[in-house]
Model the fold of this input.
Amino acid sequence: MCLIITIIMLVLSIQNLIEQQWLTGIVQLIIALGFLVLLLRNIRKARCDKNGGCTDGCLLTDWIRKLFKKKEN
Done:
Protein backbone atom coordinates (compact mmCIF):
# COMPACT_ATOMS: atom_id res chain seq x y z
CA MET A 1 0.00 0.00 0.00
CA CYS A 2 2.82 2.41 0.83
CA LEU A 3 4.42 1.71 -2.53
CA ILE A 4 1.23 2.52 -4.43
CA ILE A 5 0.61 5.75 -2.51
CA THR A 6 4.25 6.77 -2.89
CA ILE A 7 4.19 6.29 -6.67
CA ILE A 8 0.85 8.06 -7.11
CA MET A 9 1.81 11.04 -4.95
CA LEU A 10 5.21 11.31 -6.64
CA VAL A 11 3.62 11.36 -10.12
CA LEU A 12 1.02 13.92 -9.04
CA SER A 13 3.74 16.02 -7.45
CA ILE A 14 5.84 16.04 -10.61
CA GLN A 15 2.80 16.95 -12.72
CA ASN A 16 1.89 19.86 -10.44
CA LEU A 17 5.46 21.13 -10.30
CA ILE A 18 5.66 21.07 -14.10
CA GLU A 19 2.41 23.06 -14.23
CA GLN A 20 3.97 25.55 -11.77
CA GLN A 21 1.51 24.81 -8.98
CA TRP A 22 4.24 25.02 -6.38
CA LEU A 23 2.33 24.65 -3.11
CA THR A 24 0.32 21.62 -4.21
CA GLY A 25 3.37 19.99 -5.78
CA ILE A 26 5.55 20.50 -2.70
CA VAL A 27 2.87 19.17 -0.34
CA GLN A 28 2.42 16.07 -2.49
CA LEU A 29 6.18 15.60 -2.65
CA ILE A 30 6.42 15.75 1.15
CA ILE A 31 3.63 13.18 1.44
CA ALA A 32 5.39 10.91 -1.09
CA LEU A 33 8.67 11.18 0.81
CA GLY A 34 6.89 10.40 4.09
CA PHE A 35 5.38 7.24 2.66
CA LEU A 36 8.77 6.33 1.19
CA VAL A 37 10.30 6.54 4.67
CA LEU A 38 7.54 4.30 6.02
CA LEU A 39 8.06 1.85 3.17
CA LEU A 40 11.80 1.64 3.78
CA ARG A 41 11.19 1.20 7.52
CA ASN A 42 8.78 -1.67 6.85
CA ILE A 43 11.27 -3.38 4.53
CA ARG A 44 14.06 -3.02 7.08
CA LYS A 45 11.84 -4.27 9.92
CA ALA A 46 10.75 -7.30 7.88
CA ARG A 47 14.39 -8.17 7.17
CA CYS A 48 15.22 -7.83 10.86
CA ASP A 49 12.31 -10.07 11.85
CA LYS A 50 13.39 -12.63 9.25
CA ASN A 51 16.98 -12.65 10.50
CA GLY A 52 16.06 -12.85 14.17
CA GLY A 53 16.24 -9.24 15.26
CA CYS A 54 18.32 -6.10 14.86
CA THR A 55 19.89 -3.79 17.37
CA ASP A 56 19.60 -0.62 15.30
CA GLY A 57 16.23 0.66 14.12
CA CYS A 58 15.26 3.33 11.69
CA LEU A 59 16.73 6.54 13.04
CA LEU A 60 14.05 8.85 11.66
CA THR A 61 11.03 6.91 12.91
CA ASP A 62 12.72 6.19 16.26
CA TRP A 63 13.40 9.91 16.66
CA ILE A 64 9.73 10.70 15.98
CA ARG A 65 8.63 7.94 18.37
CA LYS A 66 10.84 9.30 21.14
CA LEU A 67 9.50 12.81 20.54
CA PHE A 68 5.91 11.68 21.17
CA LYS A 69 6.38 9.22 24.03
CA LYS A 70 3.43 7.80 25.93
CA LYS A 71 3.25 8.83 29.54
CA GLU A 72 3.45 5.86 31.87
CA ASN A 73 1.20 5.88 34.93
Summary: The chain has a mean pLDDT of 81. Helices lie at 2-18, 22-51, 59-67. The first helix runs from residue 2 to 18.
